[in-house]
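Q: Given only this backbone (155 positions), what sequence would you predict?
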């Protein structure tokens, strides 16, 4: 099953930024879509314990890209999970899509909005090797619902 899940495509997930730019453009906002993915781990940490501020410091991107606000999509999990006790499975596998989308003010580093997304999708029948059609279908459903929810704050 692991080998099969590794072959599942991420569809048009990399084009999500361009789709977000198109939605903002329709609202009259002049978006700048970054060509390369932003590596959050490369950003410095933001000092301070203030509530509603990003943990990473996005202020340096203000001058670099000439932007006032930055919308960030961060997908932390996409695939299939299964619970184990030691090495013994204790449940059926299920599709997972976990992400966050947020807007940060690049002048103050304040979060203007933050939306966590945690989706799970069970398969009607998962044990169907070698193609696992129901589990694959659950994966694609979670992916599509996740992409829709990531773009929802921009609609």
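A: Predicted residues:
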């Amino acid at each position: 099953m692991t080998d099969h899940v590794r072959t599942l495509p991420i569809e048009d997930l990399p084009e999500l930024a361009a789709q977000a730019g198109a939605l903002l453009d329709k609202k009259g906002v002049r978006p700048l879509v970054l060509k390369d993915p932003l590596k959050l781990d490369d950003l410095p940490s933001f000092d301070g314990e203030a509530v509603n501020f990003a943990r990473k410091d996005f202020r340096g991107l203000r001058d670099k890209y000439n932007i006032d606000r930055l919308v960030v999509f961060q997908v932390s999990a996409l695939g299939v999970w299964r619970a184990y006790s030691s090495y013994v499975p204790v449940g059926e596998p299920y599709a997972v899509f976990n992400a966050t989308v947020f807007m940060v003010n690049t002048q103050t580093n304040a979060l203007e909005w933050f939306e966590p997304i945690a989706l799970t999708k069970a398969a009607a029948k998962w044990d169907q090797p070698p193609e696992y059609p129901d589990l694959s279908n659950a994966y694609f459903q979670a992916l599509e619902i996740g992409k829709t929810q990531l773009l929802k704050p921009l609609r």
